[in-house]
Specification:
The protein is α/β, with parallel strands linked by helices and 479 residues long. Helices cover 26% and strands 28% of the residues.
């Protein structure tokens, strides 16, 4: 919802859909909460403006009423066309006007049916390995993580404000991912104490959500070691690395049949590889530590270990440092693009960075494409690439990968930023504004699967909702 106020007496406190995903021919319920800055009833004119192909089943487009303090209005609508669109609301008094809008995607018509469970995923085979960064922060006891989505309700996921620990959530994510050509998730992984036995934070997304899901064997996963919290998330010394951290990864993740191995090697992503220099005392010691990890993986029965370090820039000095650390490849978690770029500018900037890294020839890379950015508090450069333009970016990335040496991972692995970073403003999983638009773009560019296909949401088969508990916590008054 966006609002515009010219010092009115009336304010649109909320203008929202009752459910994030809506289909042609099915009821679409939308409500508005109007608040008056007055102790007396105030005559207010309310006008709902709808795009073509959307009709009102119950309620009035224009209404005049006396509002006392707070009033809720509800409309029932119905769509005749599948499309991305917006609803506009205007509330006016003699003192001014307030405006709000809802951005949403109307999904194609589908006959609902009650099923016992989510259907078995039918993968759309991609021509390269496609992974998506996966944010594991959506825990039942952290409702405040949804604050920026409440501020931007068009970001509301198809699953609502879900709990990542629920295996059913993971099965929905699996079917949506693999049926659009995505082969693996890269889970952010957080250690909470170093120098002793491994303890973690947010690992429930893997251990409860993924490992206990019915379709865990239908998708691959890897971890990205989030080692930026100094003194807690890294390692205390080489012994800690080789006797605590790496054995934990090998036993809990690398040996799991769904962990991504390429060329017989587990694939490990490291968020701040340069922090290993301080942790281990020098560049040389860090490089030694990485080589010891590879040897330990060979001793454990693998053919080695691929270690990839995060960097979202083109500075030759930093790229050289990553090379000295003994990393196999660099990758970008996301691409930051300055100055609130247009979609076309954001596309070109990302491709220029990838081409520049390749031209420098310092260290090998695996490409990443970013869909958007806002930051958790709408800070800095803010931008978003719509699905049609994202398809263009994907095609450019595909063409770029085809120019890389065929024996390099860069020609075989593409990372998508991000699957579900709803608060930070980058996400491709199905959600209110664009539905399955981003996933459909991936399917179209990287698979030979037919364009026509069925995209289910929980309501279609009598499942969900999944956000009841978190919304109840959010509704509690602050103490």
């Amino acid at each position: 919802m966006t609002t515009e106020a010219l010092h009115p007496t009336v304010h649109i406190k909320e203008f929202a859909l009752h459910k994030p995903m809506n289909r042609v021919g099915q009821p679409i319920v939308v409500s508005a909460v109007l608040v008056i800055d007055s102790d007396q009833a105030t005559q207010t004119q309310v006008r709902l403006t709808l795009p073509g192909g959307i009709g009102i089943v119950d309620g009035n487009e224009n209404v005049t009423l006396n509002i006392e303090r707070e009033t809720t209005l509800t409309w029932m609508l119905q769509a005749h066309d599948a499309k991305a669109c917006s609803f506009e609301l205007e509330a006016a008094t003699s003192d001014g006007v307030d405006k709000a809008s809802i951005l949403l995607c109307i999904l194609p018509a589908m006959q609902s049916e009650r099923l016992d469970y989510i259907p078995v995923p039918q993968p759309a085979k991609s021509r390269v390995l496609i992974g998506a960064h996966h944010c594991p922060l959506w825990a039942a006891d952290r409702p405040s993580m949804w604050d920026n989505v409440i501020k931007h309700p068009e970001r509301t996921p198809a699953l609502g404000f879900y709990n990542q620990e629920n295996p059913e959530i993971n099965d929905w994510e699996t079917i949506w991912a693999v049926e659009h050509g995505i082969d693996f998730f890269v889970y952010c992984w957080y250690r909470t104490s170093q120098g002793g036995p491994v303890t973690t934070q947010f690992a429930e997304a893997i251990h409860d959500g993924l490992f206990k899901s019915r379709y865990v064997d239908k998708i691959k996963f890897t971890i990205m070691w989030e080692n930026q919290n100094r003194g807690k998330a890294g390692i205390s010394d080489e012994q800690d690395l080789m006797e605590n951290l790496l054995p934990y990864w090998i036993e809990n993740y690398f040996k799991h049949p769904s962990y991504l191995k390429v060329d017989g090697k587990p694939v490990l992503y490291v968020y701040r590889p340069e922090f290993l220099i301080d942790d281990l005392g020098s560049i040389e010691n860090a490089a030694r530590g990485i080589e010891l990890m590879r040897k330990a993986c060979r001793d454990a029965g693998f053919d080695g270990l691929y270690v990839l370090g995060e960097y979202r820039g083109t500075d030759p000095a930093h790229l050289s440092l990553l090379k000295q650390l003994g990393l196999d490849y660099t990758f970008a978690y996301c691409w930051h693009v300055a100055d609130n770029p247009t979609p076309q500018e954001a596309i070109e900037a990302q491709m220029e960075s990838m081409h520049k890294i390749q031209e420098l020839g310092i260290i090998r890379q695996t490409p990443t494409v970013s869909q958007a950015w806002s930051g958790w508090r709408d800070e800095g450069s803010i931008w978003k690439i719509p699905p049609a333009d994202f398809e263009t970016l994907l095609q450019k990335a595909s063409d770029f990968m085809a120019t890389l040496p065929p024996d390099e991972l860069g020609s075989r692995i593409l990372l998508l930023d991000n699957w579900n970073e709803w608060g930070e403003g980058h996400y491709i999983a199905p959600y209110q504004e664009y539905g399955f638009g981003y996933l459909d773009a991936v399917r179209k560019v990287f698979t030979d699967a037919p364009d026509a296909h069925r995209d289910l949401v929980p309501e279609d088969i009598g499942m969900g909702p999944y956000d009841t508990a978190i919304r109840a916590l959010l509704a509690k008054p602050a103490t």
